[in-house]
């Protein structure tokens, strides 16, 4: 049975997927009023910031695949969004194996200064073998990719916080490396926040040891409880606090029936070859682990129409139903909800006007601390 955390929670933080990749957030021929270009995304970032979103996550793809024909590079796109906003924190997804940590540390420090401390990274251990082999880079087995990612994160943190950083690792080596200037530091923030994803045992252990945030694919309450428990089992003995983000695809409509009909239409109009191709590519990540607990290992066809299992979180219904669901996840230890939408600009506005105020009301009634990141304009 699922049980909530005993910690006194602070207010839920909200992030949205940056649609810097074409095709939208569902692999379906249903209409998606969104755009992967910079002008659209600049306006979207400003809207999200105004209505109360605190984070945005820029996706990373390097070549066309599974309905994503075009894609903008994540770090440069993130910097563009940072310079177009004032408070929004932008998380750039990066792949170890395609980045050298010293180079990324330098880029991150510069972006951090240019944005007054709002740059963050999401370290993606890698699922798309075709991108690596197309660029002539070696493809490591699952647990080796996580060993490399852990060393990558350790190097990033060391370079950002230490003088004369030295590392003799299995994947990266540094000798008396000094980064100047360091990123901006503040109370509770010694370096840019480091996020990671992954569902596997290796991913959970890595998060407990080195990451600031653990992103989960879409999950129900029991699923997220299991992941939080496993990560904390590693982090707590080390005296570390890891925060938890949960992916969820939001379908907020006037009635639950209308929201469910939208979901039915999304799945009915799925781009079947693209979804099945994506499934074939990613499910080896889960099945290649010894205990079969990897990301996407148990995802159904319907789950993968939203390629990070976003339907599983069940943020589908009326604003009241969605707000209740979010507050329940908060009680179970989820610190951040990462939102995807069908029609980004209008649905981010609708979420800020109709869902977020209800979340704050319900959190206040439950004794959850208020968020310092309130909308800059009336909802």
Automatic annotation (TrEMBL):
Keywords from the named record: Flavoprotein, FMN, Monooxygenase, Oxidoreductase
BP term (GO), one: alkanesulfonate catabolic process
CDD domains in the record: Alkanesulfonate_monoxygenase
Domain Luciferase-like: 13-335
InterPro entries found in the cross-reference section: DMSO2_SphG, Luciferase-like_dom, Luciferase-like_sf, SsuD_RutA_monooxygenase
GO molecular-function terms, A-Z: alkanesulfonate monooxygenase activity
Segments traversing the membrane: none
One matching Pfam family: Bac_luciferase
NCBIfam families: LLM_DMSO2_sfnG
Record-given protein name: FMNH2-dependent dimethyl sulfone monooxygenase
Annotated source species: Klenkia taihuensis
